[in-house]
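Hi team,

Filling in the usual template for the complex we talked about on Friday. All components are listed, including any nucleic acid strands or ligand strings, so the model treats them as one assembly.

SUBMITTER: L.P.
PURPOSE: interface mapping
COMPONENTS: two
RESIDUES: 536
SEQUENCES:
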Amino acid sequence: MYEEPYRWIEAVGNRRQYLDEQFTKGAPVMACAYADGILMLTASRGTPKLYEIYDRIALGGMGHPADLEKLRFSLLEMAHIEGFNRSPSDVTGARLMKYGLAPAIKQAFEEIYKAPFIVKILLAELGTRPERDLFLTINYDGTFEESRRWAALGATAAVQAQMGRYLDAQAGFEQAPLKQAVETALCAWAVGSLAQVAAGAAEAEEPPGPRSVETAASDASTFPDKASLLAHVQQIATEKSLECILLERSGPGSSKYRALRPDELGGLLPSGIRAGSPA
Amino acid sequence: MGMQGDFFQLLKEQGYQFGNPVAAAAGIEVPTATTILALKYRDGVLVAGDRRATAGNMVMYDRTDKVLEIDRYSVMAIAGVPATAYEMVRVLEHSFKYYRRTQLQELSFEGKLRAVSKLLKENVPAALAGTGAVVPVFAGYDHEQGAAKIYFYDILGAEFEAVEYAVSGSGSPTIRGILHYQNTWGPQPLAALPEEQATVQALRLLSSAAEFDSATGGVNRELNLYPVVKLITEAGVRVVADGELKRLYEQDVVRAR
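RESULT (copied from the run log):
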């Protein structure tokens, strides 16, 4: 039935709709530069969503854990073989994205008889100098983007843009010390998380109507104040655990990745927020 | 595929071969010879090595680092053919990282030891052909047992745990006796030495080795060349800076005239 072109386009359209729905309840991922490197954070339940890929590369993901795991393994394999055969400095986020992730995700997305990868992935790469830090994000259909200073994963492109807009409004966040940077990043994360909640509520009120997820999210031109953003984080932290990892430019040894332990993260969080869920 | 986190297996699947023997090895001068030592001191393990690489009676290089960090908690000191040794370290380094990153936990200390033995075993043909013999000393911090440990190997991959100290390389017979003497009848056993005194001992031992073994480089003060000294404690591997070695050398190794 897919031989006819328009059938195929229709099938791909259905697939997009199906995939978009898969992410509406997922936790966003926020990554940004700070004074000593890069930090990435999210909230997760059970399986972690932030991982170490190579000496200077970290991964954050949204979506199905099994798909994420499969892609994570292929990235790890590619990075380590390359790092061994050539050198660790030849393992770059851009190459992993262009020759590793993107072709695999795009192919799975377009092979409409097979299941697509239900994932969105963010790669953060710590440069030797701050201006060389790089962020790459890839959508479930294989389109990827490069950015500087920050990157975000959210249910829709609009949510991601909104998280970034909030961060851009916080002047000089990339020079902030860790504690301050964690707070700012959490607020940006909460902007995304709240936008997804709002979009979900709007969807529930008037299903398939003209007011889609996209428009609901992009409507909000002003952001909630910091107190309500942090209150949202606090509420999320009662059911999920907050995860935060760092790529530290001056960290010891060649591996710059470090996951903050819950107690360490707890000490960095604004008062009233717990890093781990009580469970 | 790859689910077990075994990087060496992955390399082999890619057609990689470790330690190929070269049939016509006779007559080739392979760079070897060195002195490395590891000893347990009060806070952990000290590993040190001279910096000379030789081929026959030629000095090839005087700035070799033979005490190589494999990860934050383990080092391998190498005596033998550097080409093989460096390759081993590269394989080990990537294997431990790959394991940690795929399995989301550190490879156990036993696992690390096993990985070293396995590589040495793969290397047996090259070792016997005379082109690739490596006799390493492996030291690291075992978090499971809360202790720093030293292991030494023969070229066939047999693994021995050193209770107090281990030495390897052509200069080692000289200092083995000194270590035994110091440990048994010295003012205090090696294991009780504080960090600074342990470092002084290492400098003295390597200077002694250089005195009697032409293939061991001692201290070259004109060029500001000091041996490599690394300390492994619960906090991880730390390199003793050249400035500190210079200070200790001038203070406690050179005899005042």
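MY TAKE: The mean pLDDT of chain B is 89. Residues 12 and 245 of chain B are 42 Å apart (CA to CA).

Thanks, L.
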